[in-house]
Design brief:
The protein has about 280 residues and is an all-alpha fold. The protein is about 80% helix and about 0% strand. The protein has 11 helices and no strands.
C-alpha cells in the first residue's frame, strides 16, 4: 500500500510538472525552459541529500548516470515526436511503452502478482492509453519516423525508471543527483550547439522552476516506491501521469476532457483499487 501511494504521488507530480513545463514552453524555446527547470530540480535533490543521505558508490554512479542519459534521450525524442505528430496517436504509444517495458523487466526479474494484480495491471495499461489520447485520430496516420521516435521516447522513459530501480537501495538520493547532473550537462551542451535557434524570448522563470521542482519530487517518490514495492505495479501507476496533466488542463485552461479520457480515468481508478489488493 505504501508503494502504491508513493507511485500515485509520483504520477501526480509528473503530471503537474509536464503541465507547467508545457505552459512554459509556449513562452520560449523548450530548451530555455529546461535550462531553468534543470538547475531548480538539481537544487531540490541537493537539499534532500542531508535529509535522506546519499552513497556515491560505483553502482550508484553507474545507474544514476545511465538514468540521466536515458532522461536526456527521452526528452529529445519525446518533443521531436510531438512536434511531428499526430499527438493523439503518438502520445498513447509513448505512454504505453514507458509503462509496459518496466512491467516486463519486473516480471522477468521474478516479481509476482496476485489474481487481482493480473487483472489490474492490464486495466492500468489500458487506462494509460485512454488518458493519454485526445480526440479521435480520424484518418491521420503517423509516419514511420514519427512512430519510431514515439517508441524510442517511451523506451527511454522506461529505461530511466528501470535504471533508477536498479540502483542500490541504500544509495539514498545519489542516483537522482548523478542522473540530474548528467541530464543537465547533456541539455546544456545541446543548448550551446543550438544557441542560434533558441530565439530571443525569455522563459517563464517561475513556471519553469516549479516544473523542475515537481519533476524532482516525482523522481524521488518513484525511487522510494520502487524500493518498497514491485516494479510492475509501481511503473504502471507512475505511467498514469497524463491524468494529472489532463485534469489540470481542464481546471486551469478549461480544456475539454473527451469521453475516451473519462473512460481512462475511470479505468485507472478501478485498476488502482485492484492493484491495492496485491
Amino acid at each position: 500500500m505504501l508503494a502504491l501511494l508513493l507511485a500515485l504521488g509520483s504520477s501526480l507530480a509528473y503530471g503537474c510538472a509536464d503541465f507547467l513545463g508545457g505552459l512554459g514552453a509556449r513562452k520560449a524555446h523548450v530548451l530555455r525552459t529546461v535550462l531553468v527547470a534543470a538547475p531548480a530540480s538539481l537544487a531540490v535533490e541537493l537539499l534532500l541529500w542531508p535529509v535522506l543521505g546519499a552513497s556515491f558508490d560505483v553502482a550508484s554512479l553507474a545507474w544514476g548516470a545511465a538514468s540521466g542519459v536515458a532522461s536526456a534521450a527521452a526528452f529529445a525524442m519525446l518533443y521531436r515526436t510531438l512536434a511531428i505528430g499526430p499527438m493523439n496517436v503518438l502520445s498513447p504509444v509513448t505512454a504505453l511503452v514507458s509503462a509496459a517495458l518496466p512491467v516486463a523487466v519486473g516480471l522477468l526479474q521474478g516479481e509476482h502478482l496476485t489474481a487481482a494484480g493480473l487483472v489490474g495491471l492490464p486495466l492500468a495499461l489500458l487506462a494509460v492509453v485512454l488518458v493519454s489520447a485526445g480526440r479521435g485520430a480520424g484518418s491521420a496516420r503517423p509516419s514511420r519516423t514519427a512512430l519510431l521516435l514515439a517508441l524510442g521516447a517511451g523506451a527511454a522513459i522506461a529505461l530511466q525508471l528501470v535504471f533508477l530501480h536498479q540502483a542500490p537501495s541504500g544509495s539514498g538520493v545519489a542516483p537522482l543527483i548523478v542522473g540530474r547532473a548528467v541530464s543537465s550537462a547533456v541539455t546544456l551542451a545541446a543548448a550551446g550547439l543550438m544557441r542560434r535557434r533558441l530565439g530571443p524570448e525569455r522563459p517563464a522563470y517561475a513556471m519553469s522552476a516549479a516544473a523542475g521542482v515537481l519533476d524532482s519530487v516525482a523522481n524521488l517518490l518513484f525511487l522510494l516506491a520502487a524500493r518498497s514495492g514491485d516494479l510492475p505495479v509501481v511503473a504502471v501507476i507512475t505511467a498514469l501521469y497524463p491524468a494529472g496533466t489532463v485534469l489540470l488542463a481542464r481546471g486551469v485552461l478549461a480544456e475539454r476532457i473527451h469521453r475516451g479520457q473519462l473512460a481512462g480515468l475511470g479505468a485507472a481508478a478501478v485498476a488502482v483499487g485492484l492493484l491495492a489488493l496485491t
